[in-house]
Amino acid sequence: MKRKLTTEENVQTPLSNDITDQVSSKNIKKAKNKNHDFSTEEIQRLKETEALFHSSLFRLQVTELLKEVSVNQNFNSSVKECITKLQDILTSLPAGKTHKIADKEWLQSLGIQIPFLEKPERVKGSFQFLPPTEVRLTGSMTLDTIVKPNLIVDLVLQMPKACFEPKDYLNQRYVRKRALYLCVVASHLSKNKQIEDLKFTYMMSNPYKPVLLLTIKVTEKRKLQFRLLLEPEENIFKLSRFELSKNNVRPNWFLGKDSESKEDFLPATPFYNSSILNDLTLKVNDQFIADVLKDSEGVRDGIILLKVWFRQRELLTGFGSFSSFILTAYVASLIMLKKINKMMNSYQVFRTTILHLSKADWIAEPPTLSEGISPRVFPTTDEYGGATSCVFVDRTGFYNMAYMISSSIFARVKDEAALALTTLDQHHSSSFDVLFMTPVSFARKFDHVFHITTSSAVKECMSSKINEFTSRDIDFAGHSNIVVSHYILQILLKALEKRVSLVQQESCTCPEWKISEKAFNFDSIRLLTFGLVLNVSNAFNVLDKGPPADLTEAKEFREFWGEKSEIRRFKDGTIHEAVLWSESSKQSDRRLVCKKIVQHILSKHYGISKDSVQYMEGKLDSLLHLNVSSKEARDEYGTGEEQSLSVLRSFEELNRVIRALSSIPLAIHSVSGIHPVFRHTEVFPALTAANVTKEMDVEKNHIVPKEGKPLPQFVPPLDVICMLESSGKWPEDVDAIQHMKTLFHIKIGNELKEKHFYSVSIHSSHVDVLKDGYVFRIKIVNTKELAVLRTHKTDDGMVKFRETDESLALEREIIALPYITSLLHGIQQENPAFSSTVRLCKRWIAAQMVWDFLPEIVIELLVAYIFISPYPYTAPGSPCNGFFRFLHLLSTFNWKTDPLMINLNKEFTEEDFSTIPKEFTKHRATLPCMCLVTPQDKQGTKWTRPNPTEPFLQRLIVLARESLKIVEAQVMLQTASADFKLIFRPPLGHYDLIIRLLKKVNVNRYQAVDAKKDVCVNLPDKSQKQPIPLVGFNPVRLFVQDLRSVFGDFAMFFHDTFGGDVIGVVWKSQAFEKKDFATSHFNYRKPSVNKDETVSLMTEKECILEDIRVIGGGIVESITVPSEA
């Protein structure tokens, strides 16, 4: 029996001879039977793929990715040549004069600004430039793990001992000398013609570690970028001098006090100390890691995969992030622990590293490179953990390499690692794209994003309330925003607690600046951006229950929450401290509970006003609001979720009544709502029908509008199908079946009217029932009709079964749609954000005026996919986040080469994931341009044929791509003037004609994006029996349908069905080509004599426009060319 590697431990095991001997040889025998002899190398490769890789396709993809991101030999040769030249230039630099560190006149004469925030400016000591004793290559190039694009080669310049004095570890003297050294190097290099660009930046955004970036022109087409780092010669300082508990920046000096006065307390400066230790231990750690990783191509490639994975998640840049160095060191530590060995391939190294990261605790069990060296007096784990958020001990045992990694970033890494493992365990063909090809932006990762505007007042308030604020400010060289971010993050974690699974600040990536410009100051950042990943099971709770009021913990609870805390008695009789965040039951208000918590807690503890917290969630809610004049109606409607529930409650009551009907001879098998409202996906759930007014007549219990009066409120029919039990007495003719259904409709309508006193309207194809102000359109269906439509008799009398357009449409309506409705309803029950997400997406589609070219159910299934298969994310916790991901999916998915497999109810098998893509590729030419595969539709054609067509899909992709760019920029770079409705206003300039509609006939105008609140809505009196309203009467909608029916051969018509007041017209170019003189071509064409005296027909635009005006009488206000509009 073939041995499978199913456990995580097995994944770490290298391929042994026993395993290879047990690998099945069936495939090899089959290949030989086809007269193809595999080489020994090919056979071994096949065995390795089957035993050790995710899949054959995954191996091929990984191989191609490694080729794509790895550098070639030409690059390496160019780098070596440039390094040799740089070494010669740098080591031969002349020594400089001695200057006071605080003296900058000589530097100004060079036109260079020191790349360091000198706070305070005064400092003791002198500086003399001496050429570096060594210039060596470091970083990814030495390990051959450098990754394209953005290739930067790291060089380390070793500063001579003579540059330093014994007490240079104090008061930023070392780091300032370091910065001055870079300035001198930059001044000399600026004179070299081959060096095109010189800039400063901070290494990993650490303000204590400025580096010099230089670009060298190798050839006309090739340029190389180098980053010059600095390290001192060995043994200039004792490593123990920089233990995390020690102080090396004196508060009196930093704060400008009397330096001679005795300081009673010297706060530790762990960040400052670690920044210097980084330089002191750089060479030791580089050499050790290189020794551990040498001679292993699999480990090298695994590190490259890890870098690509981290980079796609924006986790390798910015203050507080991981770094390539730490990532490489962590792989080395796993090799030391024998969790990884050098025989592993790249996939095994990647998976094993991700596995251990997902379970890691870098405080309780920190990784280390110091195992196996002779005992010394090292700092303890507690000393490391008390000073930093993460611990990773270096080779010397004195330096915490993870001193910059914040707790929120590490939590994010663990979360991403767990998601990656889940993705790999699914064995889907898309796992490679999810892991390595999909960028995970901050806006799409986090459900809630908000910005905090910092100010000097905020920092003063925090300084007065937090004892350690000043000491941390000293430790971070006066970059107060770093300290502010730390404390904000801490209090957010405490306040939000179980409501969120992740809280993270967007890592600030330090910019590059010219050598003549001042150093970057973190305090120049105007906004601090934070993101929340919600725990949807707790995030929307409006009540925080605290400890019992008689316990000592209650005092701490009250002090933390302030005036919001109050004593409450609960149903079980207990009395607790509690905080109520909202008295509203609206889902839209509950979604913003986290916003209220954030604003309150920051205001109470840190003096950050509510206006200074710009919360992005809820910015798109107004698109789902009703723009009516009645504030009561607007507030009651909210964003529509509660209106959907109201419809469902009424339907449940009607359902019970229908199932109990006794007037029809067949039992009702099921009653299913198929209208989008039953799936919680109707953009604007139906309002209750209004009362009869003086502007209406009532004829035979039906409301009829009076001539010359405003049209009544739009009332949509809510489709419900009643499936009858099977019976052999149904006729074999479609027309006869329709007559039988009409009879059933009459029976049902009469019983509902006479026994249950509902207002009904009976039609041959349906029965309209008014219940609680909603009109439910009941249709009788049966499977016999479907069978008859599929039956076809041949000329010789044989009966065959085949699908027709009618049978397919009926099957979708009576079988597929009810089932999909129940599944999507289930998704909504598990994911509160599903409903509003779908409705926002539909609103965007409609706003682009392409509503009729993409079926509603297609949009719903696309959003369902985002919730069912959210990787590389978790399921969206907010409508805005779901909307962003919808735009990303629509614009980036490869619709031409892949089917979108929507695993509804998790009914796909492993075989399906393998066979469906193959079948799709095999029959691609006959399939629609967009294939949505579900377990019930494995071809993916049920909902996307005939629409969307290829041109409209391409247009949607472009619209989605550009809309996503705009809205993500608005979310991440929020300004007070940002208009979040911008992407819902399509440009009209590309239309050939614009038909403007009269306001009075636009019955849905209150649903428009920019509608004025001037529509009156009369809420009905449910205690009185109401007549049947005018159902489904929308003159604008009917007008658009007429235009397409009459003029569809000449033009395309675009309209926003939700209150749009314009119709866009695009002429079809083929309609204006000359046609042969034939009666079938006479419509809207006139004869034209050609040069060869033949007669052709030419289209007359003016005739078409005149007829549009005639058909649109009382509806059309004007027809204009966009430039004239």
From TrEMBL:
Major localisation: nucleus
Gene Ontology, cellular component aspect: CURI complex; small-subunit processome; UTP-C complex
Keywords of this protein's UniProt record, alphabetized? Membrane, Nucleus, RNA-binding, Transmembrane, Transmembrane helix
Where does this protein reside within or beyond the cell?
A: Nucleus, Nucleolus
Biological process, per Gene Ontology? rRNA processing; tRNA export from nucleus
Show where the Nrap protein domain sits. 153-294, 299-438, 443-606, 620-829, 832-986, 989-1119
Q: What does this protein do?
A: Part of the small subunit (SSU) processome, first precursor of the small eukaryotic ribosomal subunit. During the assembly of the SSU processome in the nucleolus, many ribosome biogenesis factors, an RNA chaperone and ribosomal proteins associate with the nascent pre-rRNA and work in concert to generate RNA folding, modifications, rearrangements and cleavage as well as targeted degradation of pre-ribosomal RNA by the RNA exosome.
Quote the PANTHER family the UniProt record gives: NUCLEOLAR PROTEIN 6 (PTHR17972:SF0), NUCLEOLAR RNA-ASSOCIATED PROTEIN (PTHR17972)
Quote the protein name from its UniProt record: Nucleolar protein 6
Name of the encoding gene:
106072609
